[in-house]
UniProtKB/TrEMBL annotation:
This is N-acetyltransferase domain-containing protein. PROSITE patterns: GNAT. Residues 11-166 form the N-acetyltransferase domain. One of its GO terms (molecular function) is acyltransferase activity, transferring groups other than amino-acyl groups. The lineage of its organism: Bacteria, Bacillati, Actinomycetota, Acidimicrobiia, Acidimicrobiales. It comes from Candidatus Neomicrothrix parvicella RN1. SUPFAM superfamilies: Acyl-CoA N-acyltransferases (Nat).
Length: 337
């Protein structure tokens, strides 16, 4: 790792090793406010160690005494183009700086210093959806703003309008309990059925996450996040809608993470089931920017641009930044997890 020129002399920046894990966990507790009783350590292991796209490349900063004071992790991801070729990506995700070292540029130094190593690892790009506070820092480091991810909302009742007005804030990390459908991990455990479902889905002409049986089984199996799956037929191969219920401001939102439908299959069955799930509205991604797909409009969805996160992109090994209309992103691809 090449440390930026302005890194303080008493700070060492390097790639993390397996031996750093206890110190990384302790740093996260101190810097991120992990609460006792929450499954944060298991969450970190699932997210960064068990990903079928590969373990997360991680960098740390340590002081003269060898104490870790900074952390930067990138979650491995893979996109697939319509012609079958792939894009090796990472998501800029977890970062932590010890309270005594904040304000010294450790976040930017670790992030920028990691880019050369990522290029050597044949990583094509970095992408993420930073909030309004952190986005200017990313843009200063060379990230480019792709645009707002288009999202749409389906209200579940007359009282949902007022609740939606109070939902313009970040959603809670942990999900609410819900009995609709079944645990997503259970649905995706049937690898043969999932393989049959994926074979029936038209991938279209967009750049999308490379959904494999292994990816889906990993992505939605962490039990504390309470991902649920609604079947659109008699079996998994007939289609699934994956969601989770979580609080966002004054509302309870059903985040529609993935809509996996064979050609000609409507997800209407899932929308009907979720109407009685105790949620105020459904939020889902769209492949169309500036206009709502006709099928969504017919099923009661309306575009709500204010709730869409802003996607940013940093080319690494490949000098390419896609336009938003070239991408097909589900909320499961970009939600903060």
């Amino acid at each position: 790792m090449n440390a930026p020129k302005d890194a303080p002399d008493d700070l060492r920046l390097r790639r993390a090793t397996a031996d750093d894990r206890p110190a990384i966990i302790e740093l996260c507790r101190q810097a991120l406010g992990w609460k006792a009783g929450e499954p944060n350590e298991a969450f970190f292991e699932w997210k960064h160690d068990e990903n079928p796209f590969g373990p997360s490349p991680t960098w740390v900063a340590e002081d003269e005494g060898g104490t870790l004071v900074g952390l930067r992790t990138f979650l491995r991801w893979r996109f697939r183009r319509f012609d079958g070729t792939t894009i090796n990506a990472v998501r800029a995700v977890d970062t932590a700086t010890h309270p005594d070292w904040q304000g010294r540029g450790i976040f930017s130094r670790l992030t920028l210093g990691a880019l050369d190593d990522l290029r050597d690892d044949s990583v094509d790009c970095v992408f993420n959806t930073p909030n309004d506070k952190s986005r200017p820092g990313y843009l200063k480091m060379g990230w480019q703003q792709v645009g707002k991810v288009p999202v749409s909302v389906r209200l579940t009742g007359p009282g949902s309008i007022a609740k939606l007005a109070g939902a313009r804030t970040a959603a809670e990390k942990w999900s609410e309990e819900c009995s609709v459908g079944r645990p997503a991990a259970e649905a995706f455990a049937d690898h043969d059925a999932v393989e049959a479902l994926l074979a029936r889905i038209d991938t279209g002409s967009h750049i999308a996450t490379d959904r494999t049986t292994e990816f889906l089984h990993w992505r939605y199996r962490f039990e504390p996040l309470r991902y649920r799956a609604v079947s659109l037929g008699t079996g998994v191969e007939d289609g699934l809608v994956v969601f989770r219920a979580r609080r966002r401001g004054t509302a309870v939102e059903a985040t529609i993470c993935d809509v996996l439908t064979p050609a000609g299959t409507s997800p209407r069955r899932a929308w009907k089931a979720l109407k009685g799930a105790g949620v105020d509205y459904l939020l889902k991604g769209s492949t169309s920017q500036g206009r709502l797909p006709l099928a969504d409009a017919r099923q009661g969805f309306v575009p709500v641009p204010a709730l869409g996160p802003i996607l940013t992109w940093r080319p690494v090994a490949t000098p390419m930044v896609p336009a938003m209309d070239q991408l097909a992103l589900s909320l499961g691809d970009i939600e903060l997890f």
